[in-house]
Design brief:
- The complex is a heterodimer of chains A (333) and B (342).
- By secondary structure, chain A is mainly α.
- Chain A is built from 13 helices and 2 strands; from the N terminus they run ααααααααββααααα.
- In chain A, β1 (184-185) and β2 form a beta hairpin.
- Among the domains of chain B are: 100-171, no CATH class; 245-339, no CATH class.
- Helices cover 35% and strands 23% of the residues of chain B.
- Chain B is built from 12 helices and 12 strands.
- Chain B has an 8-stranded mixed beta sheet, sandwiched between helices.
- Chain B is globular and about 70 Å long.
- The chains are: A mainly alpha (333), B alpha/beta (342).
Chain lengths: 333, 342
Amino acid sequence: MTAPLDVSGTELQAAPEAVVEGAGGAKAIQGRSLGQIAWMRLKRDKVAMAGAIFVIFLILVAIFAPVITGLLGHPPNEFHQDMINPETMGPKASWGGINKDFLFGVEPVNGRDLFSRVVYGARISLLIAFFATMLSVVIGTVLGVVAGYFGGWTDMIISRAMDVFLAFPLLVFAIALAGVIPDKAFGLEGDTLRIVLLVFIIGFFSWPYIGRIIRGQTLSLREREFVDAARSLGARGPYILFREILPNLVAPILIYSTLLIPTNVLFEAALSFLGVGIRPPTATWGGMLSDAVHFYTVPHFMFFPGMAIFLTVLAFNLFGDGLRDALDPRSSR
Amino acid sequence: MSFLELKDLRIHFPTDDGLVKSVDGLSFSLERGKTLGIVGESGSGKSVTSLGILGLHKGGRARISGEIWLDGEELVSASAEHVRTLRGKKMAMIFQDPLSSMHPFYTVGQQIVEAYRIHNDVSKKVARKHAIDLLGRVGIPQPDRRVDSYPHEFSGGMRQRAMIAMALSCDPELLIADEPTTALDVTVQAQILDLMRDLQRDFNAALIIITHDLGVVAELSDDILVMYGGKCIEYGTTEDIFERPEHPYTWGLLGSMPRLDREPTERLLPIKGSPPSLINVPSGCAFHPRCAFEDRTEGRAKTEVPELLETEGGHLVRCHMPRDLRRAIWENEIKPNLEAAS
């Protein structure tokens, strides 16, 4: 890695002399690890920080969903038929029934609190996106490193497996599988089963994206001089793999995880939209959008879940891009 | 038997374009406390030789044959795991570019500690003390503080010192330095060379210096081996090579070396042409397409591969010209030119 090119770089260059001179001085210049340098860079990137703050906000919303809806809304599956006009099945009041009790208005037909449903939808979205990403990152990293480090036959088999997975018609497979799986399976049932199922489907089929990146990185890292230097001192294979190569992969792993999460949020929404994801009455953003299609006269019903998906994906992408700029400054500008 | 002995070492790499004979029948020996300089252009097989001794030539593809004897043990036929246990402890290497050969994520101290703990079962605390000692020994000021610095916080010279400390962490008996000063500026080069000479005396290690810079080996080496196209073309003491060189290629190297004792207006004499492809090595003497004296070999240079023959007292030369002719050319045509201005 080259020394950083920005302002902090000049301070670092000055470090050796400064330490000698300032030995008894008031402020000794501290050495910074690459992690600290990246953090400083990230802090300066306002857009990325905004993304990060929104992501943290979303996570808090998802975790404290019961508390939030308890304070500001109603339980997500509580019917409020009194808010609904039985003629049109739409909300009685204008603006979709938005008032101080129902911050985002009410859902047509049953009159459920839209705010609560959007808040609870964040839980499902993030839960599935996080775990599916984690699964694909773990599989992708392990297989990518193994393929890149050992090469030869191992590499060929794993690389071909990646091609097969990438060529797989995932959406068709997911729709078919959702139809076949019963309500109880593997000792799980209901939402839990569907969530686990979606995590596995999404996770299993998106690992080749990160696997390829990790394989490529490992291939080039394996030939780097510091690996040779470690070998020349008698280091064992596992040592080289875990201590020399893996730390260099932390940056790409982090970056592509944050960029994979929004993709998975979208994918989960798409599956729920198509009715093969989480089943009603559990609130999901994709499912709400799917319902909203029938009520295009009540645009707020589509607006809030749609906006939730849009902002989540945007925030993760902005944060991911900022993270890449911070961890790998050569990749941009 | 000597401490290190290579016998007819060959390292060939099969590629899609043909067989690359990076090292083709190399033999030499080296005692403890002595220094051998291996000199040659890029692609002459210097670095592959050193990696081959350490068993680091890229595994599956390379074909290696011949014998490498280190302290009574044969390494070519030894298991990879056994050679691994020797690396670091028995033999170690100093790399050309200390920035790219140190891991960017760990402090200099951590890297020396890890290197030491590969072969020594000691606590981190003891190893850290050892690391600080070593950093002090290689001339890094305030080693107890610099031990926690990252490689990117060091200057080039300090990094190379740290790299040397790392290589020395387990007291290796054979130290191979692959162009140790190429990435450094001239003033730092001299310091590093001095340091290496002092350390070699202290550690009584056998030292191999690989370089394309005759100035470096002139200062440090006891013996010099000149490589061309994967083969040794001249071998002798430093005095032999500088005072009585007999191979036209060595003359070329001497002629293209900048010297302070020459007039600055004097032009350097480059060797014409470029190093041969190791896939299609020229027939006969590999140097003949570039050799100014090829016409004095009665046409043998184009067809016959010359033998490496002793001219006198351990001085070996691979050339078709008769010994007396070579000496005459050196005395009458080359030496006066080199010394013309001085």
